[in-house]
Amino acid sequence: MARPRKNAPAIEAVPPPERLYQKLAKDLFSDLVAGRYAVGDRLPAERELSVQYNVSRPAVREAMIALEVQGLIEVRIGSGAYVRKLPGETDAPGFTVTAFELMEARLLIEGEAAALAAVHIREDELDELERLVAEIERENLMPGGSTHADQAFHMLIATATRNAVIRNQIEEMWRLRSTSPNCALLLEKARTANVQPVVEEHKAVLDALRARDPAAARAAMRGHMSAVINHLLFATEEEAIEAARRNVASTRERYARAAQL
């Protein structure tokens, strides 16, 4: 049996590569520190930042959310992003798990969880899932909406995998959904845009589980998660589109007044 080498060099953890939205958020943070913008100033439009920094528009939105979470900017629907306060000497750009990162992880993990659950799920659990689908439909009609039944639906599927590690991982992702400031902010924007759990998508997952078809269950869950990501993108796009409309209307009004001089 080989003996471990003495004084072996410690293996240093390699930090994850910086994502585009993080780099952009840091650049904008530096602009605020340098005094390029004053409190009350409007930041360049999403399209301008996308072109200027050569990043996608979703990356711009994630960067804006990161700055908004820190209270540095305020995104006003139909108007744009405005500087709310300037960073202090001890402030630094901070990042939490984003809603898009969380949903990407859920797409990968919960898709496989659904496939495994299709093998092990009990009849009484299938009946409970059916009840939860009906509850999701009722919750969608409530003022302000609710996600209690949606969470219970996904956690029951996680339990049905009969794998404690998978269940704990999915439970942790739901915890991050409410505790990560970035996630909470974007989900609030989604609720404002009337984005709600889609009943038909949950029914498709349930039907695949009832058929005991792992491949169909995986596809249905991944399709559901992909749709959620698209809904979140829609919520952020709606803000950008409305801001563009307001800017165009303001410009049109300005030149209309000028034409009357």
Automatic annotation (TrEMBL):
Xref: Pfam families: FCD (PF07729), GntR (PF00392)
InterPro entries (alphabetical): GntR_C, TF_FadR/GntR_C, Tscrpt_reg_HTH_GntR, WH-like_DNA-bd_sf, WH_DNA-bd_sf
Keywords, alphabetical: Coiled coil, DNA-binding, Transcription, Transcription regulation
GO molecular function: DNA binding; DNA-binding transcription factor activity
Cited Gene3D superfamilies: GntR ligand-binding domain-like (1.20.120.530), Winged helix-like DNA-binding domain superfamily/Winged helix DNA-binding domain (1.10.10.10)
Alphabetical list of SUPFAM superfamilies matching this protein: GntR ligand-binding domain-like, Winged helix' DNA-binding domain
Coiled-coil segments: 234-261
Start and end residues of each HTH gntR-type domain: 18-86
Annotated SMART domains: FCD, HTH_GNTR
PANTHER family attached to this UniProt entry: TRANSCRIPTIONAL REGULATOR, GNTR FAMILY (PTHR43537), UXU OPERON TRANSCRIPTIONAL REGULATOR (PTHR43537:SF5)
Protein name as annotated: FadR family transcriptional regulator
Species per Swiss-Prot/TrEMBL record: Sphingomonas ursincola
